[in-house]
Amino acid sequence: MALANVAFLAALSGKKVLIMDWDLEAPGLHHYFRGLVDVSEFKAVKEKAGVLDMLWRWKSEVAKLHSEKDISNLEAYLSDKGSFESHVSNLSKNIKLPKEGRLDLIGAGSLTIATRDGELSYEAALSAFDWNSFISDEFGSIFIEQLKSWAIHEYDFVLVDSRTGLADIAGICTMYLPDLVAMFFVLNRQNIEGTAKVAAAIRKHRRDLIPIRAIPTRVLKLGTSEESDAKALVVDQLVKVGGFSLEAANADINKLALPQTDGVPFIETLAMFASGVTDPKLDVLTLTYVGLTNQLLGLSLPVPNVEQELMATVRRRLRPQKATPEYIEALKEAEPTRAMNEIIGFIDGAIEAEIDETPIDDSHIRALVHACELISSRFDDVESEYLLTEKALELLRVKYGRSHDVWRNDLVNELKRGLDLVQTYFGQDEGLSILEELDDVLSGVELSSNLKIERIGYRLKSARMLEEAERLDAAKRTIGQVRALIASLIDIDSLAMDQKSSLILSDAEAFLILGDVYLKERMPQKAIVEFEAGLYRVKLAEPHPNKHDAHRLKFDFNFNLATCSEGLVPTEVRVMYAVDAAEAGRGFQFASFRFQTLIDIVLLTEKTNPTPIFRFCTAVFFDQGRGQRSALVSTVSRSINSSKSFLDRIELLVLFLEPNANIGLGEISVNLLQTLDLFERTVERRHSATAKANSYKLLMKQLEKVKSLLDS
Q1: In sequence order, which residues have a C-beta less than 8 Å from that of residue 518 and are 6 or more positions away?
Q2: C-alpha dist (Å) from residue 396 to 319, 330, 374
Q3: Ordered DSSP codes for 481-497
Q4: Least confident span in 224-233, 315-324, 364-373
Q5: pLDDT digits over 144-185, tens only?
Q6: How far is residue 454's CA from residue 408's CA, in Å, rounded to a whole number?
Q7: Which partner from 227, 390, 663, 669 sits 20 to 30 angstroms from 166, CA to CA?
């Protein structure tokens, strides 16, 4: 940013200035000047051949050397200043500069580059370039000297943007090209020490023939002890390591430091166009760069008078409504809070334009929404993330109001993002509001089968939220809507098998929710009817493509039937519901209270019929490679109390099984012992801090007792 502003200010003062982008791995110097030319001209600037094109052409010329005649051709190439001028873009041709002022750019390179191996993309050409052979075998230093000689002859000042460091490209820019090196760094230890080492290496190579300036940037907390301490460290490192004199180090730190100001743009923009003031003399950042320009270039420039027409033209090109989608998306690289404020301003401007009947291109609107998504993902606080989602929704609602068909999918997708956020972090009211809006957008139009199935899913989520919020009548009405939607689809012959299966599972989910509603209304008989009907539908659609949802529903139906039917169905029926729940829950973790509830019900079985117990043990304690045992132990061992409850039930289970040892108790004992061994290790790891407590000691004694029962 400093180089771009110094170059522009020098050109405004009537100097002929060339800037070269030698930051080949991360080029982008041209972006600072996009407002000086119109969009079509700027595209040509970005795609023009540049530094890397020149370097590869030199390699090709050197490869032709086979005779004295070839050498003379190379000399002719070197003497032809057109070899360099053809790569120059004039950035100031539309600006009235005083005297012979001029601002030119040689960029990093074109999109595709001619190499000895043919046309390559910029990235591939850079990767293939051998810097060592360029210097040692291909007379690279001659090329650099010739480029330098041409530039010095044609321009008053040549400013080169370089990577930090000493190797490869950065080495060329610090060792071969410059007559002065300006090193910009921030005030942290890593930057300070690295800058001092680079300065030392340059002095060693150039034998103190090149001036070096050290310039701290983004300096905060001016006048504080923290700033003083950081500056003292800089001076110490520059003197001891970097070879600066004490006077020179102090002069640079005190005269050249660039303070952090509120006016620093975070997307590449020249300072005077980024600020909101009309007079550059009132802009702190512009004044800072004027001082830096004078110090580095040995000038005494006043603050420039910029024509208001130029100021207005550049700012008009940069205003949010006219920004390109690429520019908008570039905000994702900015500091999140500032990027959020910027994108919100863009969206507000776009909404105003829509209201004023001056609609913006659809691509720009979608770029704004996409930028909101990218920026929001960088926030740790949910409020900021949700604020950006709400702004995107606000904009899309305006567009949807003007053209339903064009913007329906965009609005639906953003509403889905908002739903994910509110379901995770916010209350039910916000979630229900978005679900109702989703249903409103998807209703009243002819939807594809997939979208209808999607709409059913949203209605089911609404019904569940209403049930959980005790809004039971609204939940029942929503279930009625779900069933009507399912009925309109289920008999369509063109539906794929997975779609029909999904519909059946959705129908079963509706029975589950309605059964839960009846339980809250203290009508368990009606709940049992709903649960049994839903369980029948799950079984009807087997095998299910979505096995996880099918198993979850089977578990929920059977668990609810086992727990709500006491006194309403025979005990052996309740026991079988509990066993079926355990088998359906195999392979996923269910809460410890559910395990304890199920085992309590299973233990109600008649001792003369141990089969349900054996099925239950097989489902719960036989690992079968699914992590079932680990999931169970992890759940029940979370506290001393839950661990004790678990052992109580295992002890009852063992006592129940003991008289039936002739029916396969041995295999169950092995799996129970393995489970208890894992349980013991987990409890020790989790509760070792309480090892001296009586509760922990009693738990360990109880564990040993249960193990001894199994061993016997």
Answers
A1: 524, 526, 527, 530
A2: 20, 21, 17
A3: HHHHHHHTTTT-TT--H
A4: 315-324
A5: 888 888 998 899 999 988 876 555 555 666 667 788 888 888
A6: 14
A7: 227
Contact 421, 385 (CB under 8 A): yes
Neighbouring-strand partners of residue 216 = 185
pLDDT attached to residue 624:
59
Residue 568: the pLDDT is: 93
Span 33-59, mean pLDDT? 83
HSE, CB side, 13 Å, CA atoms: give it for residue 234: 29
Instruction: Find the length of the chain.
Output: 712
pLDDT of residue 321: 47
**Per-residue pLDDT reduced to its tens digit, 205-229:** 776 678 888 888 877 766 778 778 8
DSSP 692: T
Task: Write out 142-197 in H/E/C secondary structure.
Answer: HHHHHHHHHHHHHCCEEEEECCCCCCHHHHHHHHHCCCCEEEEEECCHHHHHHHHH
Q: Contact at 8 Å (CB) between 537 and 504?
A: yes
Query: In the chain, what is the straight-line distance between the N-terminal and C-terminal CA atoms, in Å?
Result: 80
Q: How many angstroms separate the CA atoms of 621 and 271, rounded?
A: 69
- Please check the confidence at residue 711 and state whether its pLDDT lies above 70: yes
Q: Which residue has the tokens 């005083």?
A: 98
Identify any residues that bridge with 102 across adjacent strands, giving them in sequence order: 16
Cβ neighbours, 10 Å, residue 463: 28
Query: Tokens 């004694």 — which residue?
Result: 701
**How far apart are the C-alpha atoms of 122 and 49, rounded to whole Å?**
10
Q: How far apart are CA 690 and CA 256, in angstroms?
A: 61
Q: Note if the pTM is more than 0.85.
A: no
- The number of angstroms, rounded, from the C-alpha of 476 to the middle of its chain's C-alpha atoms is 40
Angle at 674 between CA 698 and CA 554, to 5 degrees: 100
Closest by CA position to 21, among listed 51, 58, 55: 51
Please give the full DSSP string across 273-284, using - where no structure is assigned.
HHSS-S-GGG-H
* Alpha carbon 18 to chain centroid, angstroms: 38
Within 13 Å and on the Cβ side, how many CA atoms surround 317?
19
C-alpha distances (whole Å) from 350 to each of 38, 528, 686 are 21, 55, 55
Q: Is 89 helix (H, G, I), strand (E, B) or coil?
A: strand
Q: Are strands 102-106 and 16-21 parallel, antiparallel or unpaired?
A: parallel
Query: 674-691 burial by CB neighbour count: b if 16+ within 10 A, else e?
Result: ebbebbbebbeeebeeee
**Each residue of 133-152: pLDDT tens digit?**
888 888 888 888 888 889 98
pLDDT bucket at 346, cuts 50 / 70 / 90: confident
